[in-house]
Amino acid sequence: MKRIHSLSRITARTGAAALAALLLAGSQVPALAHGGHTDAAATAAPVKEQKPWGIAGDARRATRTVDVDTLDSMRFSPERIDARRGETLRIRVHNRGQVMHEFVIGTKASNAEHAEMMLKHPGMEHDEPYMAHVPPGESRDLVWQFNRDGEFEYACLIAGHYQAGMVGTLRVQGASAAKAAASAAKPPASSHKGH
Ligand SMILES: [Cu+2]
Fold this sequence. Notes:
The chain has about 200 residues and is an alpha+beta fold. It is built from 4 helices and 10 strands, in the order αββββββαββββαα. It has 2 domains: about 1-40; about 55-180, Immunoglobulin-like (Sandwich). A hairpin with a 3-residue loop joins β2 (about 65-70) and β3 (about 75). The chain starts with a helix and ends with a helix.
């Protein structure tokens, strides 16, 4: 009698263990599914998002390097960059000042909207391939392909800087448009000769 009693106890304990194992297995199902989801996201290739002002560039395809200084007078030097449509530029931003500056490419509208957000949330973290955050005394590279024509701008969106006029002009045009603009000063006959 005693033996049977102890045996049923063991069975009960085993049963409980089996049940616990089942519950554990059950709880692992959503965990595994979740794990699979994050793995897929981590291994996915970074998507280059087309923006009205271009697309993330490949550093090996950069045709030239453009040096831009950020100054504590809330200005960029130079204040204008010209690019040919399709050109990939390596923009090397040097912070010559004592405070943090940034270089953000966009349209007038997108930068104005972004600057408004930065004014409301000064601590906001943001990082995109069309922006560079440069600590004082340091330099950062930004590689961007200008595959859309237009007049864009680069700006420092740090609260107060944009409002103080820390903005530059970025002009992108096709090779033929650039040629036409260059020969606009000449008489029409000579500009037709080129074609
Ligand atoms: Cu700035």
